[in-house]
Structure formats: C-alpha cells, structure tokens
Amino acid sequence: MPAVQLATYDISGGLARSLSTQFLGVQIDLIPHTGVVVDGTEYFFGGGIQRMAHASFKANHGISPISLAEVGVTSKTSAEIFSWNVLG
C-alpha cells in the first residue's frame, strides 16, 4: 500500500519570519503551501488540483519542503489515483 506524506513548504523563502514584524507588527513564521505525496507523486492546488513527480515539483519551483510528515497509507493503487481527473 502506498505511503501518504504531507509536504509543507514556506513560499516566502524565510522572508515572512524576518520581515513580518516590520511590516505587519506581528511575527509570522511562514507562508505555507502544502502538497500530498503518494508513491513519489505530489498532488497540490495551483489553479486546480495538479500532480507532478515530487522531485520535479521541487526542481521546477526551486523550493524544498520544510517538513515531510508521514500521515499513513492508502488502499488505492498508484494507477487508481493517477486515473482521477486532475490537471497535469
């Protein structure tokens, strides 16, 4: 059964932590983006649900997750998940 992971990214690249107090008056540690990784494929929202190989997502967006949490497994096969109607 394929493992399911939650990838969390800081799309501010660390700038939220260093500049938020100056601009907003409150500390914000990150601006999160999340994706679900199943069997090496990342599913994420970007103008609709999209999918891309996890390694390609990191390379194409120039960002690595700040955390990659194991959330369980799925009884669906990779082929079943891939057959769902998503963009990409």
From TrEMBL:
GO BP = proteolysis
From which source organism is this entry?
Triparma laevis f. longispina
| Recorded family membership | Belongs to the DeSI family.
Indicate what this protein is called per its UniProt record: PPPDE domain-containing protein
Q: Which GO terms describe its molecular function?
A: peptidase activity
Q: Which Gene3D superfamilies match?
A: PPPDE domains
List the keywords (alphabetical).
Hydrolase, Protease
Q: Residues in domain PPPDE?
A: 2-88
